[in-house]
What does this fold into?
Amino acid sequence: MNKRRVSKTIQVGGVSIGGDAPVRVQSMTKTDTRNVAATIDQIRVLEDCGCEIIRCAVPDMEAARALKEIKRGISIPLIADIHFDYQLALAALESGVDGLRLNPGNISDPDKVAAVVRAARERQVPIRIGVNFGSLPADLDPRLSVPEQMAEAALRHIRILENLDFDLIKVSLKAFDVPTTVQAYQEIASRIPYPLHIGITESGTPRQGMVRSAVGLGILLYEGLGDTLRVSLTGDPRDEVYAAYEILKSLRLRERGPSLVRCPSCGRTEVDLVSLATSVEKYLAGIQKSVKVAVMGCVVNGPGEARDADIGIACGKGKAVIFRKGQPVRTVDEADVLSELMREIEQF
Ligand code: SF4
It folds into this structure.
């Protein structure tokens, strides 16, 4: 795995991004921001899942003002997602948000951009520039590849902020297509010092989106690119947070909660492995501590993986061996496997 790209550190509320800070997990609310109670409820649920920064869409002034009350009801930093309207950005800052997602080049009047930047600087609130493949400016050099165009579009916005002496910047370059996204981040990574927010946009339903995001974000993170990420999925935003941590855990970049190693089961399996593993997964969902648990279906490959986990079981015909930190501790009957495994995990 490549060494992580060195980037400037910025603060979004109490959360640092870039530099040596852990790669941060973000999500976005799916509620109507004007519905304060529903938005706070959703954010609290996401906080419990490990979401570290939350973004809310700000379609109008009522939503911008609602952010004030939302901010009071949550513990994690709040980012306002603004398009075009500088007054919404000013109102969101007035409401006390910790970050803005805003492309300054989309605001045509330089005085209005300057007003937003002045207000953000006063409050030390960073601005994320977010370029999406679907909304590239028409006047980019057609000889450039699409990833190069995306980087160029981001640089235009960045230069506007830099010319106003503002450097609390974070940058994202998202596309649905994984190679395009990866190449766009590669393109810009060495040209700016700012932290990168990574994501695959419109990645889709949980099944499709998790795979696309795991591939795209996995490549970027393996290359050392990415300081914060969002897995964009259609559906429950808890899945976004869950998937983000699974991606980070799989690259050993973050630890959170249990990891479950389970064999896929095959013709050698002599127990009902699918229902056993599903029950174990449900049980582990309620545990915060980092613990690696292996549920293996046979004595061929099972003991190896079971030994490698903190707690493991390797099943045989009507029986299972329980391992703790690589050592077999006892053999239990199939009927007792789940309860005995849970007991071991609790003791661990
Ligand atoms: Fe099959 Fe055993 Fe591998 Fe599970 S661990 S898939 S039962 S060979």
